Amino acid sequence: MSVRRSFAPGAIAAAVAISAIGGMTLGLVSGCSSARPATSRSSPTVGASTAAAAPAAAAPAAAAPPTSAVGDGRDDRLGAVLWMQTSAEYRALALSAFARARAELDLALKTPTWTAALEQTGDFAGRPPAVIVDVDETMLDNSPYEGDRIRAGQRYDEASWHSWVDRATAEAIPGALDFARYAAAQGVTVFYVTNRAAMYEEATRTNLRTRGFPVATERDTVLLAGERPEWTSDKGTRRTEVAREFRILLLVGDDLGDFVSGARALPDERVALAERYADRWQERWILIPNAYYGSWERALSGNERGLSDDEVLRRKMARLRGSN
Length: 324
Known about the structure:
By secondary structure, this protein is an alpha/beta fold. Helices cover 36% and strands 10% of the residues.
């Protein structure tokens, strides 16, 4: 067990982040009437078409009707996406988390017995150092994609996500680029372990390099879900792969699954899992806030896929705590 130390600026990030792990960020999206379907960006499902019937030839073309109440501001993602895009608080949390990561990296480099990965065992002290970071909402900001979908009154679907990823224009999360460059300057290899599908590898590399992130050329450091049969959405097998050759100093991500296997559980079980490793948060495990999607949200629907919007909303409301 590692020694607990003062949390300095990262303490605030830790407190908010642990709440996000347990799916407690619902306050950001209160007053919502529609529900995000239980889909995952790691294994996308194309949504059913909602296009209106073709109008008469003389009439102007009709737009497809929205699938959420975007016109009156009741889309369930709106508050969370705006918080990420506009709030000083989000920016401060991200910057403080990466500042904490830099301080912990310095300490880890001086401590040969230090590892961040539960999958790393045996004698690893002499291995070269590495950090493992997630990509989406950890290194790259995809909130403009979500903003486009909200404005259109539409949900995530494979076609629109594919188009967004291929553009390779996502900006860096505040503090992410400076941290990644600092790590590389210390001789630390940065591994990008993402649950983007394997077909997005080149676009993901392009986006990272365009924004200035260090991406190694001598070996594959962008590890996507499905590149190998055993590389599922559970990132444990990819952490194990990195641990075979490197000493993993830090894990950085926005989702419980970026740190430990078993994140796809019920909310109470997820909270218990996070608390089991309380000594690691904002020390060896650096959590970046993300309030608008993730495994925490899928947990509210029992991790079931294919549910209707109404059923997802019903299950969310059943989880909502009131004063009575």
